Amino acid sequence: MEIREIFAHNLRALRKTKGLSQEELAHEAGLDRTYISSLERQIYGASIDVVDRIAKGLAVEAADLLRCPEAEATK
Amino acid sequence: MEIREIFAHNLRALRKTKGLSQEELAHEAGLDRTYISSLERQIYGASIDVVDRIAKGLAVEAADLLRCPEAEATK
Asked: B19 vs chain A: nearest CA distance in angstroms?
């Protein structure tokens, strides 16, 4: 999996696990809803500053957003 | 720790563990040596695309570069 795909997958999965809409997460992270949407569609390569803001909005570690789901699945 | 500090710390620590100079890592990752140096000095917020290239150059997972060292230390 490409890094943008991994990030988009984890972002969406963790957001849904936390029961947050894109709009609610955007508000928590101080970002625009359209930007969250773009990241989930792999349009941009987020900076680590953005990854950190989103991680804080989701109450997870930044590293959790870049962890390869395939690696987890094969454990 | 701020995310840039975490990334810079892990980048430098993993690079040294692998016995690579900034120049050697830059070559492996297809980046400029001065850019690696800037990241270790927390000048820029790297994009996840850059984090991924560096991770591949270091033969680690991208997530390893954003993992908080304090959290590891208290385990």
From this structure: 24
Of B4, B46, B67, the CB nearest to A63: B67
This complex has an ipTM of 0.89
For residue B61, list chain A residues with Cβ-Cβ distance below 8 A: 66-68, 71
Best residue in A47, A48, A52 for a mutation probing chain B (most B CBs within 10 Å):
A48
What are the pLDDT digits (tens) for B13-44?
A: 999 999 999 999 999 999 999 999 999 999 99
Domains contained in chain A, number: 1
Q: What is the CATH number of the domain that holds B15?
A: 1.10.260.40
Written as one string, the DSSP assignment of B5-73 is: HHHHHHHHHHHHHTT--HHHHHHHHT--HHHHHHHHTT-S--BHHHHHHHHHHHTS-GGGGTS-HHHHH
Query: Which A-chain residues 4-23 have CB contacts (< 8 A) with chain B?
Result: 4, 6-7
Domain of A8 in residue numbering reads as 3-73
